[in-house]
Design brief:
mainly alpha; Tetracycline Repressor, domain 2; 207 residues; Arc Repressor Mutant, subunit A; 10 helices; globular
């Protein structure tokens, strides 16, 4: 780690993550290189290696930030809203993920590569944020559905979080994919992030 104040270190880490985020809007994970990310920062490319050794570590840091922002938004809602019906909760959770499309994109496309290509300390930092998101959703269930059994809440968590891996590819379809589905005669219903998440959450909550 380079010498300098914690504030400077954090600022440079954030600049690197922001550069990666910007590139990811127009390029795929495979296309983006450390050199590309370095060229989008205000300091030399080799300086990146003082903070991250691989692009997988940079993407993992971006995904970590996305989980933190999602958890923060859920906590803010819990602080403002005392009660919710099942329909309202499903809608709230669906909207919260609709605002985090990038989280879902990274999660579905490159999650395995990022974890295997990152050092243990970076993976641990990510898992802390991921674990906090699970605890936050569980806290939401405790708050809004106190009569829900422990088993039901656990089933919700163990179903919903794996489900998140598939949201993006089911809701962001290229024209080539859409055409292929039509030519193959696949009767596929295209849904938004909100629609697919709402339907899942509502079913998991039950009647």
């Amino acid at each position: 780690m380079p010498k300098g104040s914690p504030e400077l270190t954090e600022a440079r880490r954030e600049e690197i993550i922001n550069a990666c985020e910007k590139l990811y809007k127009t390029k795929s994970f495979k296309e983006i290189t450390i050199k590309d990310i370095g060229n989008a920062t205000s300091f030399t490319r080799t300086s990146i290696y003082n903070y991250f050794q691989t692009k997988e570590e940079i993407f993992l840091a971006l995904l970590k930030r996305e989980y933190e922002l999602w958890s923060d938004s859920l906590k803010q809602t819990m602080g403002q809203v005392k009660t919710m019906t099942k329909d309202e909760f499903a809608s709230m959770l669906a909207y919260s993920l609709e605002e985090r499309a990038q989280l879902l994109k990274i999660l579905s496309m490159n999650h395995y590569d990022m974890e295997t290509g990152s050092r243990p300390e970076h993976l641990k930092e990510f898992k802390v944020a991921y674990g906090e998101s699970i605890r936050t959703v569980m806290t939401c269930l405790h708050k809004y559905f106190p009569d829900m059994t422990v088993e039901h809440k656990q089933d919700f968590i163990y179903t919903f979080f794996p489900f998140m891996f598939g949201i993006y590819p089911y809701t962001y379809v290229t024209e080539k994919q859409r055409t292929a589905m039509e030519q193959a005669g696949v009767n596929y219903v295209f849904m938004s992030i909100y629609e697919i998440t709402y339907n899942c959450v509502r079913k998991l909550l039950g009647d």
